Amino acid sequence: MSFNLYKNSFLCSSNDYENSKVVLAGIPMDFTVSFKPGSRFGPSKIREVSVGLEEYSVYQDKNLFNKVFCDMGDLELPFGNVGKCIDIIYEFAKKVFNDGKTPIFLGGEHLISFPLIKAAKEIYGDLVVLHFDAHADMRDDYLGEKLSHATVMRRAGEVVGFNNLYQFGIRSGSEDEISFARENSNIFFVYEIENLFEIVKKLKNKKVYLSIDIDVVDPAFAPGTGTPEPGGLTSSQFLEIILKMKDLSVVGVDVVEVSPYYDISDRTSLLAAKIVRELILLIE
Amino acid sequence: MSFNLYKNSFLCSSNDYENSKVVLAGIPMDFTVSFKPGSRFGPSKIREVSVGLEEYSVYQDKNLFNKVFCDMGDLELPFGNVGKCIDIIYEFAKKVFNDGKTPIFLGGEHLISFPLIKAAKEIYGDLVVLHFDAHADMRDDYLGEKLSHATVMRRAGEVVGFNNLYQFGIRSGSEDEISFARENSNIFFVYEIENLFEIVKKLKNKKVYLSIDIDVVDPAFAPGTGTPEPGGLTSSQFLEIILKMKDLSVVGVDVVEVSPYYDISDRTSLLAAKIVRELILLIE
Amino acid sequence: MSFNLYKNSFLCSSNDYENSKVVLAGIPMDFTVSFKPGSRFGPSKIREVSVGLEEYSVYQDKNLFNKVFCDMGDLELPFGNVGKCIDIIYEFAKKVFNDGKTPIFLGGEHLISFPLIKAAKEIYGDLVVLHFDAHADMRDDYLGEKLSHATVMRRAGEVVGFNNLYQFGIRSGSEDEISFARENSNIFFVYEIENLFEIVKKLKNKKVYLSIDIDVVDPAFAPGTGTPEPGGLTSSQFLEIILKMKDLSVVGVDVVEVSPYYDISDRTSLLAAKIVRELILLIE
Amino acid sequence: MSFNLYKNSFLCSSNDYENSKVVLAGIPMDFTVSFKPGSRFGPSKIREVSVGLEEYSVYQDKNLFNKVFCDMGDLELPFGNVGKCIDIIYEFAKKVFNDGKTPIFLGGEHLISFPLIKAAKEIYGDLVVLHFDAHADMRDDYLGEKLSHATVMRRAGEVVGFNNLYQFGIRSGSEDEISFARENSNIFFVYEIENLFEIVKKLKNKKVYLSIDIDVVDPAFAPGTGTPEPGGLTSSQFLEIILKMKDLSVVGVDVVEVSPYYDISDRTSLLAAKIVRELILLIE
Amino acid sequence: MSFNLYKNSFLCSSNDYENSKVVLAGIPMDFTVSFKPGSRFGPSKIREVSVGLEEYSVYQDKNLFNKVFCDMGDLELPFGNVGKCIDIIYEFAKKVFNDGKTPIFLGGEHLISFPLIKAAKEIYGDLVVLHFDAHADMRDDYLGEKLSHATVMRRAGEVVGFNNLYQFGIRSGSEDEISFARENSNIFFVYEIENLFEIVKKLKNKKVYLSIDIDVVDPAFAPGTGTPEPGGLTSSQFLEIILKMKDLSVVGVDVVEVSPYYDISDRTSLLAAKIVRELILLIE
Amino acid sequence: MSFNLYKNSFLCSSNDYENSKVVLAGIPMDFTVSFKPGSRFGPSKIREVSVGLEEYSVYQDKNLFNKVFCDMGDLELPFGNVGKCIDIIYEFAKKVFNDGKTPIFLGGEHLISFPLIKAAKEIYGDLVVLHFDAHADMRDDYLGEKLSHATVMRRAGEVVGFNNLYQFGIRSGSEDEISFARENSNIFFVYEIENLFEIVKKLKNKKVYLSIDIDVVDPAFAPGTGTPEPGGLTSSQFLEIILKMKDLSVVGVDVVEVSPYYDISDRTSLLAAKIVRELILLIE
After folding, report:
1. From D246's CA, which of A178, D219, F31, F147 has a CA 20 to 30 Å away?
2. Correct CATH for E5-126+208-282 of 1.20.120.530, 3.40.800.10, 3.30.70.330, 3.40.630.100
3. pTM of the complete model
């Protein structure tokens, strides 16, 4: 048929995997066997609202029309089976990194960053992780579980080396995990966000993976998330930070914990979509 | 690539147009140039929530797994240009009917029924339209416009003949349009819904097109719609009516006016998805 | 100036008090000194959504265009001073009844019915009150207060005589008040609603005041109210009841306890507006 | 201190476990390690809104003031560890049944019914389970898991014998589980609800456990639940059913799947609280 | 009658057109033939919530009580007929400007600014437009339409001269329109907002028209709007900007794109009302 | 019984009044006889969401686990009887202060601060009140009432001496009350917030009572409140202010006007809970 029919895809994206440098994929895992709760619908909503944005960015004076990038849809996952999910995500990420793509993964919950970072590490060897979040996510286990949204950066740090982990915007954590982070990773609390600009300069020649939990932004700007924590960044502050990433060599990105059901205004998803647009435009 | 990736599609649907008898397509037209308001996001939400249903129907003891049907995604439309939209929808519908398919169109606003019914009429010749709605939609023009969601059944009646138009659940209309309907079409007000069961018997050998405005159901059961009108059917009543359709020879269907933004519980979209599931199962 | 400018008024209403039989007025009292909570905004929202209805009623085959009725706006009240509010409402109602009008008062909370009924009683002498509500509102006092939304029908009964008070749809009350109602007024619980049709026949030659608490309808159909009580009527049932009122000699009406903030779908206000439209049309 | 201080408890409840026949307890399990999603907050919200009801029931002409019953608060559970949760719930239920109490458990998700029914079975030997739900919950496993909200009635049936399991209001299930239920348990679909009244008569001399998933009621009446399914009972219908339970010898109850976050009107929690009030009043 | 009755009007406003310098009027146009979607209800909601503010401003130490200004209500418009709407708005504005008033128009959608600015230009000859918005609104046409909310500042610039158009807070636009604005108008992106203070000094002797799209403020502060765009001003920043306007000779104002339905907290309408209060107070 | 059962209490709190320095108590007064509207449910919601926070504070590097503090639940109040409520609250506060505790009271509406401050004054003699609010609350009477949420700081000032009253964040008030405050108390408008840091230094040796109306924060960060006023502090700014309180000798605190029903995201309650956590940690 010759009619134009589309499925829900990110603004201006194509299906052309081969010729795309940047590749979008949704990872709708949220650990729960029931129907509605949470970030499972994040990728779908981010795509949906992305059409409310312009293809052109006034910040970068660049246009998505001039980029070939593809939106692969959502990865199919066996909900409820954490282990198998992790494996599938890992295999998928490995393939994408192997193909030389720069993936932008849309969560889903934060645990997905672990297999993604692991795959990136295996391809790139030397890898720095920049982690934006309200929560440190540095527990060794959570209620006995080693793999949890609350342990993901501990696992990631074990993979890339804690000295290669930079955490920004943090304003919540258990005493143990914060203590661990202070000793091992590079943790910057929300009131130390200015340090980021120095760090970015320092990391110019490194391969960088960005892990963005939307709750790094204050719940006034991003109410649609599972564990909102007051006292966060403004959306303007965070967009400024995102634009700073153009000085880095970004090899992979995830944007996680967007839970559309808690935000009838959709500004959380819109902010996520805008972050994604800016990232697509600044990745070479 | 060999990974399973999916885009937002209706529960259990495939991409196999050739082998599908039933074909789903979204028609996200809502006449408005701005971003958010309304039924434009109906098809996408209906697909999204459909995964919260089972593939199996206890009402019909049938299973979507045993059906080959495809979800074609949404038709791409030049928003704001009513005339061109109508043309594109008409051409698309004509193709689908020509291919011998039984389409289920997801709106979008009610005006889309006009090109759909026109296309069906041209293929099937003798056609009966069953119209479920709170509103008669029988104005000759609306603020001077001949093509409007408020005139759609007047236009449809001109195409199929008003004697072939049956309207059910009606509880709102201007004096003129109701008067016109009383004289020309077969109109049954909401308190006359029982007549439907007799009508269905009478229409057994006819080709039938179903046009379902979700607001035929009371806003308690379907709050997510643009012009809610109290005093409607219950969802149970309407599901019972849908099941009666199995005695008819249904050649096309539309389900329109689902506006997800006005219903945070998603029960409107869920009801629409359940209606669609039952219709897929009862169409031979 | 010759431009058409309007203020928020009920669908199809005029400013012509002199020539109007039916007169609408809002009584935005809700007992509370703070800004937002409750039925204070009921009248304004009912007017606003009324334009979403048609002027014509399919139920009665009558048209508001053929009626002269006026919407006087909202009565200005000293919020927080119950006694003075009651006085102002009473004086206002007295004037309207004295002028031979049939007022439809939009609440506001239920206590407003007391001064309204008192004024009606003084003009009409022999008066029957039909009370539709989930709650009996028959306490002698509430936390020591004689004038409260929970005592309003006790006060009203003292004025018109309890034998002239008919209560329908009741499904909540304290043991004392229900016991009092069983002995003194004519109380019909929600599961006895069918009795209404007999009562209406019996009251044909009486002057009747209708006091309608929107919560008589189930919160599925009217979630926008202060004290929702599950197990109520459907909107269809209640519209049928309203239509039965055409056999009565209705001299005054109030529709109370619409709290728009608890209903983003506006179906509560729409139902109230539809009730008002039908009442305007059936009052001679 | 002599001041009256209270914690959030059910309307009119005491702390007097010893002298209470009926005992309320919350089981805030919802399988998920994150903060917000779901029925975890059900018990707390049901207690909170219960004070919006009267202590007196017009349906039974009985008063909670004349009942000694206690509200024990919520059971403390290790969130995320399904097995340990089940054990704790089981031990707790065993103790309560052993003490000769009639517990009313507030969920939480439906899986909690399994340890509760198991404990009841061990104390009472011969036990009938009446199950009210939109979903059959009769899968043998769900994504490989034997213990899931989707398998709970399969597990319960294995404990009490499928012939002792009666299921009402069902309108959703996989083909396999419905087929299994048709062959093994006593399943009545939503359109067969009238059969309940006959069944109740038949079960008069039996010890009965009631398992009530709030989604048996239509989402119009109970939108605050995790897996809403259109086409359900009205709240009036279900209250009538609850009142029928007075002819049975009820030894235990659970009311599950109330998810307050999806219902800003709180009518779901109010309905659950009203059901609980009526059950307390009808249990001898 | 001597009773105080009021219709929904702005806090402290009168009906005295003759003696008012400042005149408020609602322009409830939102281009759409259906009932609910959008800014049509903006003026009515802004009036409604205005009573939640004080008449006195701590920022200016001035009091509305000392100002005579009138609220004329909403202009009656033929919904759906763009051309006729524009004509009516234009004629109305012309009259108001001719009478020497300083109007504050409440939208409605942004297109209304075109006839308003055109009328102002014709009266005042030399006119500067200050435009506050997230979007440039500088397209030459939008989907072929010359008159659209997306083209309004292009049309306005053609009327007043692009050199007289100053745009602030912009953070979204197509490449073409931004490029056009860069070359022709005076455009300042959101991160250049500080330039405003210099510009204001420069414009001291000019007649100035203010066109304020509420979405210039971040959706955290103004979620109730049709096309929210993250990364905007805070409400404090924008109030500070409004207060700077006292150094200018403001001859007309519009405040547009308030869509109350997307903001249950009403803070968008409250912010609009507060902006209007401050503007009334600072206009001589 | 040996099972762990809990009632809704603040994160990490105990029941051990004797050994607690800090004591939490809810004062659910909101002046209104009806069910739902407002801050009555504030304390309960603050407790509920507190479990979404960590026990550890990254700001102070301190842990609630190392603090013994108790949550006494909510004070039982005769709703609707203002005078008696004030008496009960006063007696309760007197007892707590007498026992040498540092109470943190959770409102409820702002009027509760009057009896609380009165009790504190009587125990501590020399007392300074720090008042954080959008509104001055300095009226002498409100609609004739001396005791009102709008007069509370006038009453408080009469008790402690207006020179001992410091007001921060104010951005709304009547002309009279602001004028009174300017002459008598120490009032700092929202744009003068920086002065707080100097004031804190000056008050180091004083006994200080903190009265925190959550609406001091902008409604973007705290939409769940009764009288939102745009133009307020960010949550980050206010958390920074709270941390400054560690330099003071805080003897009592209230956090008032949290109205959970207007904030489905719960970020208002979360912010209140976070403020409470920080205050518990900084009180010696």
Report:
1. D219
2. 3.40.800.10
3. 0.90
